[in-house]
Amino acid sequence: MRKAVSVLLWLLLILSTAWCAAETPAQPDRQILFDESRIIACDKTQMTIQPRIERLTEDAPENTKLVWQSSNPAVATVNSLGRVSTLTPGGTRITAQAKDNPEITGSYELYVVWAVEELIPAEPEITLVLDLSGTRDETDLFYVVRPSDAWTGGVHWSTSNAAVAAVDGTGHVQAVAPGNAVVTVEAVMPRGSTRSPKAMFRIHVQREAEKLTLSEDTVALKRGGTALLQAKIEPEDATGVELVWTSSDPAVAQVTNGRIRAVGSGSCRIGCASADGKLSAACNVTVTWPVHDVKLSGRGATMSPGEQLQLKATVHPFDADNPNVIWSSSNAQIASVDEKGTVTAGLGGDCVITCAPEDGIGTAAQFSVHVLSFSVAREEWIVDTPAGIMIPIQWHSFEPIPLELKPSSACFRAVWDANSNIRIQPLTAGVGVLTIRSTDSRRDRIELKIRIEDSAVTDPEDYPRMTYEGLLKNEPETGTKGKILGKVLQRIEQSEAVILLVGTAGEDWGEENFWVEYAPGDPVTKASKGDLVIVCGFYQGVYTYESASGEEISVPALKARQIIVR
User: Fold this and answer.
1) HEC profile of 291-318
2) How crowded is the C-beta side of 56, counted as CA atoms within 13 Å?
3) What's 15's DSSP letter?
4) Is the peptide bond before 317 cis (omega within 30 degrees of 0)?
5) pTM surpassing 0.70?
6) pLDDT, tens digit, for every residue of 294-305?
């Protein structure tokens, strides 16, 4: 009995175990796992998310072929290789299923969104100020997302120079030190996006200025001149101060960025101020138009004592504020000059006449004056007697200086007499030049024209008297020497000859006329109409001429050798 019960219980146990085995599902031998359970991607893109196949038992297959599907193909589709193509914003679930066991699956959620196309800074340029107390300026940076309904997964903030401007994760920026920095905000983009939208903010950190000064307090310029004023701002690291330059009288001086240009004579005030009007400084400017230089009507002259010379001064520019000049002499005993530029020679020597601008600014002009240490009464002398002439020397130095005589012609001889005067001794008729010059360093020099007349070398007694009546009775040969006494009735000057009609008889010397001729360059004393003359010369035969009434008149002719005016 007991044995039968035991067998029955054993059979019930076997049946119970078999029933339980039939009711309990088999455990999977592998699993499909994705690293991400939730993925955000932009529309119109493709991507492949491959899972990991993890074997749970040793007899699990090493390779598993997957079957893919999308829960919402209108949002995204997936092909047999697991490549996903996003179509339009929305949500779907992408599932991978083991082909040999549909119970083995893995999946991830896919959200398709519109991506950010650009970030636009609300204020691209921002200026922050560090004031004199050291307070740091700060502000929040704002931007606009385009398109407005784009998905934003957050942004990243960064600064190009944290030593100038610091920024936190919310876009709050704070000034640190003077300078420039760029703060950038960059959007976090969904998977599949090729864009990287950014917005940049240019941050200018300035230190507040405390004081403004100029490099010059006063400036003096000539018209047309320029000068540069330097503006100094304190403290030195103060930045961002915009300066405004002004002139109180642009007709006198104009200014551009500190560069002064003188326009016209006068005075004005050049101002420099900050654009906000908190700081200012000024410079007094005086503009003049002085004489640049003076020109004289020559460089120098040699003068005789007592001689005067008028100098003319020309100032440049002609429209100078003060065109007046001042005259002076380096030695007034040698040559003095008055306020009008008239030079008067005094003692022999050298000096310099200076003409300077009265305003004392421009370049002066100088004129060299050499005053002769000796002189003579005139420059031309005529010797008409065999005894010659004496030319007195006038000395204008404290003592005589050594002189030498240099005749240029053999028609006379020049010698010194006992009283240091010059004796001219005639030798032949003619014209020459006598040069008198000093042999010392002064090199004084005078040239005299000496004319030796025929009378100085010809004795009238050597010429026999000719009469009109005697020539008619016994005509001599041509070239016969003779002289006549009469009155000049007419004088005719031609290019090649001088002709005198000389009457030798009658109550008014109007009868028995002679034709007297000589060349213009012959050393013959000049006789005028009406002069009583003695003519010494050579008979030239009979000359026929036509009178004013048309009558032909024949008269004896003489070639004059000497004419003595009585």
Assistant:
1) CCEEEECCCEEEECCCCEEECCEEEECC
2) 9
3) H
4) yes
5) no
6) 999 889 998 888
